[in-house]
Design the sequence.
């Protein structure tokens, strides 16, 4: 399985090699490099489309804040109308980063955890630049750290710092963080779920359903090392599980086909769950440039935004 | 090359192991981490796809080590030409001892014994010296060494077997101890000189528990003589025997009414219910048979009532003289021959002027002492000294007691009787009988002096060797001091030639003097037993002493009622019996055996039954029965022989097996001398050292290579 090919609209010259990017030590710098490089490569500003948007007029009733009176309409029609806007400036984005030990695997000089942290940092930085509030929840078998979504000075740095913590934990539990998120995130927002998802998926669907039911816009990023995608063992070795420390004697020549089949089935299950719940699913190989992920994410978001607006407009029956 | 333990060579199959291990791709010790094993299954180790073996030299060394180890453990040796030919055994001396006792009459035993003896004789090598003995009570050489050596080598066994064929088991008991001693001594020397080489006794016997081994207890078994037991086994183990038991002394009865028999059941019998009763000569029971219940290994005594005609002692008893037992498997010991006891009538002549029922007189006590028993009836004929003797009266009396002075003619007549062999007992009531004593002794005068001790006298010195006092020789009965003697007659025994003082009083005077007179004797009692003289009559010694006097007269019948087969039966030694011209004995089968003149015993009691001795116009009957021990037919444990110092060979090796064993022993010896296994083990160690060094070197080289390969 390979990651989704980069979109044709993204100029390849703008991409930073993941290897080179990961050699930058500071997570913040990495995030900045991605976002700014990405920006310079885009033709449109990412601010477009995120402006304050007018939705409808409503007749003034005593008690309304007179600040929102549309004086121009009053001038024209001699009636008081209140101008209503879409509340979209303060988007709450929650990043869920898997920091279990299985994320500590990597064959390209950096681990999946580092890649996932960079992805999380990139998203955080990007959203922060947009003025959105960004929160972070890291987990392994249980929830490790939680930063509520805020938009203030220093919050981003704290977030980066949390992301830089080394992975730990014996197992990956996808249920606990999602339940916690469902309990914590009252207001609707954006949830980016970054993990390798190398764990049983039986209860994931229910938890994700709970999340989407709360109105969150959920994005699932599955980060896998290329060696995981095609069992990149060269010879028969004793293989130790990073989480459980269980060892098995594996001969890749005989085990590979079965492994790839099972992994594909697993990923396909995850994808099917996401599709069913209307969740955006991204499979990222750590060899893939991060910009692609970001680009796809934004593209998807914009597409969703347009759909959403189209739907709401159609529902309100026009106006203006 | 030969191997002592060739099975260890199978250990060489272990060389397959290293080949397989070399073919298996070595499981890596390297460990790598992986994010999750949830999609992985363990891979089994597999054989190398490449048929090429890695580390060929190491493999070869390992195979070599295993092969050498297996060879070492299989104890190899080179068989050398044997120094000694296994067949060249030094000449052996063998005595084949065949049991012909009565217990060998059991079904099938004799045939088997002959077969065994034949096997032994035929197996004897031409150089061996063999003698064939049979034994029951005694061992008899029926084919001695000399005849064996004289006979041509090919005919020896046949000749010996021919002799054995003429023998059948007799009726005698098994004196195994004596037979073994005879055989051992025959082996130990020939013609007075010792013979080298191995010596062996081959005992062919049923080895019954009743075999007598007591002779072996006092015998030091010669060194180098080994006993090999060829035990023959009876087909039917159930055997019970019957024996006559000495009758109980019952003073209350004057005539025998029962015969007591003991029924012995062998320890390995399988039955315990038998029938017992008088039988006719034809075999069937005469009258009702009684039940006899005897558990195996035990014996019980049963009183068998005498038939009325026999109890009466009449001549009609002639047809029924045996008690038989039925119900067991073997008949040889089921019949016991009985001579019904007959009361012997003895007369005692009393010459004295006693009133018959006067308790102060000696005759009163004499009458009460001689009461009748089932065996003996004593008739006392009292005769006044003055009255003349009836003709034959003195002749028929066994003992003549003289208490009062006798007329000189009577005394002379009695002296004649004594000279002819009669026993006279002179117990004077007073010193006035001195003249009678002188007449009896044939002297002019014998001084006899009345003595009355101040207090009392006692018996002091008693010669317990004398037949009169022999029954009292036991210290339990030898105390005569309780008998007080109030007065006695002093006799100067020294003055009488040949007089033997048997007892003395404490004063030193003779109390009882035995004086031989011709063929008879005169016993002088210095004191009477009447209360006036002494307490002898009321002492417990009185009656036995009187019976001893009767015995001196030679009238008492021998107490033995039965003899065993092979016993020497002493003939009646009473005067005028056997010293007459010979006589004859009629054996149970009807054969008549003439007795030599002057024979004192009869030894040809070769079979059980009633023997009838006719000599001197008198007929004497005696029963000869089977040795009671022959009924103990349970097998004897050979441990018993070992315990008595007889080395018993454990097994009877077949010649082929023996040869194999010999070869094996030679192999063991050669292997022990050569000790090749040491070299193999040393070679194994050397190979293992080389292997270790090579393996170490290979591993180091591989590690170095890997290091080089790693960046």
Sequence:
């Amino acid at each position: 399985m390979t990651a989704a090919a980069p979109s044709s609209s993204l100029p390849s010259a703008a991409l930073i090699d993941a290897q080179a990017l990961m050699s930058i030590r500071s997570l913040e710098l990495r995030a900045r490099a991605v976002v700014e490089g990405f920006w310079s490569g885009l033709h449109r500003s990412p601010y477009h489309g995120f402006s304050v948007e007018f939705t409808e007029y409503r007749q003034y009733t005593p008690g309304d804040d007179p600040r929102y009176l549309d004086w121009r309409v009053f001038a024209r029609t001699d009636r008081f109308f209140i101008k209503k806007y879409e509340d979209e400036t303060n988007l709450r984005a929650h990043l869920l980063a898997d920091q279990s030990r299985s994320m500590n695997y990597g064959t390209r000089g950096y681990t999946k955890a580092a890649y996932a942290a960079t992805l999380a940092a990139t998203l955080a930085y990007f959203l922060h630049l947009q003025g959105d509030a960004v929160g972070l929840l890291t987990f392994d078998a249980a929830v490790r750290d939680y930063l509520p979504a805020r938009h203030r000075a220093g919050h981003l740095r704290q977030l980066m710092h949390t992301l830089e913590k080394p992975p730990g934990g014996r197992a990956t539990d996808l249920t606990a963080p999602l339940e916690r998120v469902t309990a914590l995130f009252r207001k609707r927002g954006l949830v980016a779920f970054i993990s390798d998802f190398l764990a049983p998926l039986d209860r994931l669907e229910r938890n994700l359903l709970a999340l989407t039911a709360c109105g969150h816009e959920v994005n699932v990023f599955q980060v896998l090392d290329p060696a995981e995608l095609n069992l990149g063992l060269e010879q028969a070795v004793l293989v130790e599980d990073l989480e459980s420390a269980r060892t098995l004697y594996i001969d890749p020549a005989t085990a590979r086909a079965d492994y790839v089949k099972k992994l594909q089935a697993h990923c396909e299950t995850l994808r099917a769950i996401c599709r069913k719940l209307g969740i955006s699913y991204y499979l990222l190989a750590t060899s893939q440039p991060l910009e692609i992920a970001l680009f796809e994410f934004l593209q998807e978001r914009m597409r969703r935004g347009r759909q959403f607006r189209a739907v709401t407009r159609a529902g309100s029956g026009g106006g203006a | 090359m030969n191997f002592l333990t060739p099975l260890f060579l199978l250990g060489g199959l272990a060389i397959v192991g290293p080949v397989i291990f070399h073919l298996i791709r070595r499981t890596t010790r390297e460990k790598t981490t992986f994010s999750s094993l949830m999609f992985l299954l363990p891979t089994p180790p597999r054989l190398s796809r490449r048929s090429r073996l890695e580390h060929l030299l190491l493999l070869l060394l390992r195979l070599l080590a295993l092969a050498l180890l297996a060879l070492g453990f299989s104890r190899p040796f080179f068989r050398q030409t044997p120094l000694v030919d296994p067949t060249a055994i030094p000449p052996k001396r063998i005595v084949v001892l065949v049991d012909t006792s009565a217990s060998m009459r059991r079904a099938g035993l004799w045939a088997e014994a002959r077969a065994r003896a034949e096997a032994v004789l035929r197996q004897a090598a031409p150089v061996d010296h063999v003698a064939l003995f049979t034994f029951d009570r005694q061992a008899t050489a029926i084919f001695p060494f000399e005849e064996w050596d004289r006979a041509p080598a090919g005919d020896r066994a046949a000749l010996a077997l021919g002799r054995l064929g003429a023998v059948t088991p007799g009726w005698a008991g098994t004196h195994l101890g004596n037979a073994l001693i005879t055989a051992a001594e025959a082996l130990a020397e020939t013609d007075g000189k010792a013979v080298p080489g191995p010596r062996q006794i081959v005992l062919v016997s049923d080895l019954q528990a009743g075999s007598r081994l007591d002779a072996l207890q006092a015998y030091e078994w010669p060194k180098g003589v080994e006993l090999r037991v060829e035990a023959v086994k009876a087909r039917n183990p159930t055997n019970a025997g019957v024996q006559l038991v000495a009758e109980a002394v019952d003073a209350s009865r004057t005539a025998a009414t029962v015969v007591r028999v003991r029924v012995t059941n062998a320890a390995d019998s399988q039955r315990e219910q038998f029938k017992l009763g008088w039988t006719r000569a034809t075999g069937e029971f005469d009258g009702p048979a009684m039940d006899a219940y005897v558990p195996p290994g035990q014996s019980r005594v049963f009183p068998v009532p005498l038939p009325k005609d026999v109890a009466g002692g009449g001549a009609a008893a002639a047809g029924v003289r045996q008690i038989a037992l039925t119900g067991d498997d073997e008949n040889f010991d089921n019949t016991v021959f009985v001579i019904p006891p007959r009361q012997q009538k003895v007369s005692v002549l009393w010459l004295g002027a006693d009133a018959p029922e006067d308790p102060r007189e000696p005759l009163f006590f004499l009458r009460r002492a001689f009461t009748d028993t089932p065996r003996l009836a004593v008739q006392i004929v009292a005769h006044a000294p003055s009255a003349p003797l009836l003709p034959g009266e003195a002749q028929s009396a066994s003992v003549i007691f003289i208490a009062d002075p006798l007329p000189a003619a009577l005394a002379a007549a009695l002296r004649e009787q004594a000279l002819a062999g009669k026993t006279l007992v002179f117990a004077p009531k007073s010193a006035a009988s001195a003249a009678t004593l002188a007449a009896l002794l044939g002297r002019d005068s014998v001084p006899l002096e009345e003595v009355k001790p101040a207090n009392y006298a006692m018996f002091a010195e008693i010669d317990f060797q004398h037949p009169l006092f022999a029954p009292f020789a036991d210290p339990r009965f030898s105390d005569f001091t309780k008998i007080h003697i109030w007065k006695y007659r002093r006799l100067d025994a020294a003055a009488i030639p040949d007089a033997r003082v048997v007892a003395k009083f404490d004063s030193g005077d003779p109390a009882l003097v035995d004086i031989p007179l011709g063929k008879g004797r005169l016993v002088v009692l210095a004191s009477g037993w009447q209360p006036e003289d002494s307490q002898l009559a009321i002492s417990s010694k009185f009656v036995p002493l009187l019976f001893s006097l009767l015995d001196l007269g030679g009238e008492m019948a021998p107490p033995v009622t039965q003899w065993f087969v092979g016993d020497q039966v002493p003939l009646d030694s009473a005067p005028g019996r056997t010293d007459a011209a010979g006589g004859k004995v009629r054996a149970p089968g009807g054969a008549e055996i003439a007795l030599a003149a002057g024979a004192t015993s009869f030894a040809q009691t070769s079979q059980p039954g009633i023997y009838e001795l006719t000599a001197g116009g008198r007929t004497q009957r005696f029963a000869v029965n089977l040795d009671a021990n022959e009924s103990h037919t349970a097998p004897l444990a050979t441990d018993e022989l070992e315990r008595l110092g007889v080395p018993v060979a454990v097994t009877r090796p077949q010649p082929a097996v023996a040869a194999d064993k010999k070869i094996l022993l030679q192999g063991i010896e050669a292997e022990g001398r050569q000790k090749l296994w040491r070299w193999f083990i040393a070679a194994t160690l050397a190979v293992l050292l080389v292997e270790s060094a090579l393996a170490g070197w290979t591993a180091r080289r591989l590690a170095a290579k890997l290091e080089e390969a790693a960046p």
